Amino acid sequence: MNTPTPFLMVAWGAGAILSTAGALLGFLLVTALVLSRLIKGPEDTRLIAFLRLFNSLYTRFWHGLRPGREDPLPASGAAILIANHRSGLDPVVLAAHTKRIVRFLMAREYYEICWLRWFFDLVGAIPVNRDGNDVAATKKALKALKEGQVIGIFPEGGIRLAGPDGAQEDFIKQEEFFKAGAALLALKTGVPVIPAFIEGTPPKDSVLQAFLIPSRSRVTFGTPLQLPAPQGRSPSKEELRAAAQEIYRSIEALKK
Prior knowledge:
By secondary structure, this protein is an alpha/beta fold. The protein has one domain (68-252). The chain has helices spanning 6-38, 46-63, 90-95, 108-111, 117-122, 135-146, 181-189, 207-212, 237-252; strands at 79-83, 102-107, 126-128, 150-153, 193-199, 218-221. It has a 6-stranded mixed beta sheet with strand order 3-2-4-1-5-6. The chain starts with 5 loop residues before the first helix and ends with a helix.
């Protein structure tokens, strides 16, 4: 009886390892496919369903997020999701709570990061100039709402980092900093506005740092607002100001 040479023994060992690795990879792929189908949203492509699965696992195990069983957004039809803004991770934790695709309005300088641009385009992000005078972005958002999509807005207009005591800047101390974009969209379309308050996400302006730092994040959702749209005319400055204040108060009320 011939004794296997060392070379054959190594080859057999390598083959067994590769076979096991291949079987494990196949099992993981099948499992991911099944799970992605279970959490697939009504507007999802297969790729977005896979990304949704990854986001669900990532936010649960790296950021301690525990979304409720009920989707805070309507199952269909247009809506505006609004929230405070304390971290580059905020859109990610909001998206983890719903099966709807949320088209976030985001600062143009982030949207134009070359290695992330493909992803922002995939999820329908809408770039906005920080000066607030962006007619093109407003038109895109209005078109999306008229088509029954969900728009996500951080009305503060930028990330509000934590102060020296580690707490966020009172959400916003002065209401005049609160931009009226969400109010304008709501008054022009009459769609429901869903307020949310985010806590615990890494207080980092850098998207990459916020993704890498673990946290204990939590999101609280409020009762949808219905701001009546003026009939046959554009909303006045007073109506915009009043609507913006109501949106501000709806988020502020969710603070614990």
